[in-house]
Amino acid sequence: MRHNCGIFGVYNAENAIDLTYYGLFELQHRGEEGAGIIANTPAGLFERKCEGLVSELVRGSSVKAFPPANSCIGQIRYSTTGGSSIANLQPFVVQYGDGFLALAHNGNLVNYCPIKRELVSHGAVFRSTTDSEIFLHLIAQSKKANLTDAIISALKRVEGAYSLLILSPKELFAVRDPYGFRPLEMGKLNGATIFASETCALNFLGAEHICSVRRGELIRVSQNGVERVNILENEPERFCLFELIYFARPDSLVNGYNVYEFRKRLGKILAELYPVEADAVIPVPDSGFSAAISFSQNSGIPLELGLIRSYYIGRTFIAPRLHERESDVVFKYSPLKSSICGKRVVVIDDSIVRGTTSRRLIEIIRSAGAKEIHLRIASPPLKYPCFYGIDIPTREELIASSLDILDIQRFLGVDSLFYLPLEKIVLPEHEDRFCTACFSGEYPIPVKDF
């Protein structure tokens, strides 16, 4: 079991496919295993999927070759349930009533297995190995009179994390689970309604950000306008803290939080709690930059560009296999020796998951001539698996679950190591708003059969 994905949708735009393609392009950091789009065109249903990056959707052609379409949804995938396979690429589409039904999902269901067994026992045939297909089967089997009610009845059966976009010939639905684990933002552009996992996709298109989709809310967009309904009884809010620490892009606003400012605050706290005498602050690109800028500002230690990232290599945390993660680091980062050689450096990173990437990075910095290496992590130790949509599958893979901080320091080969305490990250007025299960082991929803 391993998902953080990005979803994007457009309703009432003549160039809906073009907008979706560029929107997914801006969400590429959320997944690099595959991409897909489903659109409602005058000629019928348009579908295109690819393994790899979003750019593969137009390999051998161009965006100009896309047909006109009024509505479209898309997803970029990073598998957490079902693994890497072309059959698991979304959006999924089925025939429903007099038309089609397409779905794109970001999240993970914790009661997926028992529901699937029940559906299979009643003759359902699954074409993928992901939990997302559950939604379509439940909707299709509903005896409700209209699609909106069928979707609501399906959502009342599932438990877990989900932000969904559901497209039919005449409607586009956007839904978030009652805990609000995963982000989903709403925008407007020249009369079109747009949904995206992060506002960076809206900003790129020049769209106006309207709001975050509320937890437990269903938004129905049709020719009659936008209808917003709270369909599920809200549970205590549990937005994923790791979205703000690592996954979201710093130029995004997610769930009401400015990602850049949030990460800068973490850097400030690091500088205050764990001062050190050093000559340079070096961020690990890219998710370490925001905290490093603030650490430098608050410590008075100059910020230096010590690691150069190759943008032709993807994010190592979301590479699906361990050997890919380890080899990617060598090709992904090059040291800038003039910023490192003979200096005491403070390296700022967002998190340590398995320790494989961090250890190789420290070796690279040490080989460039660093005199001392002090590592500061802008998050608490990751000790527990995530069942709500992040690739943190087993405790055995998490270095902090079996080693204390001093042992991790020795394993990494650094002169000092400090993490941020969880109680320092979450402000008192927001302490009940986040899911911190991967740090604390406190799971908002029990995992029934995963």
Q: Any low-confidence stretches, pLDDT <50, length ≥5?
A: none
CATH homologous superfamily annotation of the largest domain: Aminohydrolase, N-terminal nucleophile (Ntn) domain
Query: Can you tell me the CATH class of the largest domain?
Result: Alpha Beta
Spatial strand order of the main sheet: 3-2-4-1-10-9-11
Task: Give Rg in angstroms.
Answer: 22 Å
Count of domains: 2
Q: Strand tally, please?
A: 23
Mind describing the biggest β-sheet? Answer: 7 strands, antiparallel
How many helices does DSSP assign?
A: 15
CATH topology of the largest domain: Glutamine Phosphoribosylpyrophosphate, subunit 1, domain 1
**Cα shape:** globular
Instruction: Indicate the percent of residues in helices.
Output: 25-40%
Q: Give the end-to-end Cα distance, rounded to a whole number of Å.
A: 8 Å
Q: Let me know the average pLDDT.
A: 91
CATH architectural arrangement of the largest domain? 4-Layer Sandwich
From the helix content, strand content and strand pairing, which structural class follows? Answer: alpha+beta
